[in-house]
């Protein structure tokens, strides 16, 4: 009995230490975003004025609007492509199913820097060969994000689709419903939590991405993470802390929204967002 209590308290203490290790640096950044003075290591009082200063800076405003535009478009396109691919692969018996699935999931395993370098070379060569292909700009950032995020949507939606089983769809066909009616009234409502979770994750992944963006952007396209990194190279300022705090809150709200939506529909957030593993 005493051993069981000791092990439980030991595990609880270890869990607290892990959480502190993960979130204490973020807590320090958030705390000093509200600091009155310019010194980011000396607390002199509480104030919101660094948030206002950051917001009134045109460069930060343009970077934020560009990041939001890319993230929203990426969420829409990646969710559409990823969902269609998940439906095609979910119950397919084609011999090409496994190689195609492997290629999709490789984008999640291959280091992001490799994908970023390959994307930049491909985009430059494609623009040189085809005039209609866009030059390096926010459009190429969007293309790179869509390729990367679509794999995440496929992972989440395919897991949900294969776990549902075909029994309800077969019953719908037996009752005389057509393929479109069955998809609209049976399949889509059951897939909706996974689709929304994939869309929210795609948004957050695109919004805070730096590596893919910096390799596939032109000189005049600066996203919000790029603006933060460019400023951090010359030293951390309270304005950078304020921007980082807002970015953290947006990403945290996106992740929490995805988990809340999945759990509200009766799913297991950890299982759904990990693609059914766990």
List the SSEs and their pairings:
Elements: H1 2-33, H2 49-55, H3 58-90, H4 97-109, H5 112-129, H6 138-164, H7 167-174, H8 179-207, H9 211-216, H10 224-232, H11 238-264, H12 269-273
Write structural notes for this entry.
With 278 residues, the chain is mostly helical. The chain is built from 12 helices and no strands. It has helices at residues 2-33, 49-55, 58-90, 97-109, 112-129, 138-164, 167-174, 179-207, 211-216, 224-232, 238-264, 269-273. Helix 1 (2-33) packs across helix 11, helix 3 runs antiparallel to helix 8 (179-207) and helix 3 (58-90) crosses helix 10. The longest helix is centred in the N-terminal third of the chain and has 33 residues, at 58-90.
Offer a quick outline of the entry.
With 278 residues, this protein is mainly α. It has helices at residues 2-33, 49-55, 58-90, 97-109, 112-129, 138-164, 167-174, 179-207, 211-216, 224-232, 238-264, 269-273.
List keywords for this structure.
mainly alpha, 278 residues, 0% strand, 12 helices
Sheet with the most strands, sense and barrel status: none
> How many beta-strand elements?
0
User: How many helices?
Assistant: 12
Low-pLDDT segments, ≥5 res: none
Shape: globular
Average predicted local confidence, pLDDT: 83
Measured on Cα atoms, how large is the radius of gyration?
23 Å
Helix and strand element order: HHHHHHHHHHHH
| Beta-strand residue fraction | under 5%
Structural class: mainly alpha
How far is it from the N-terminal to the C-terminal residue, by CA?
29 Å
* Fraction in helix: over 70%
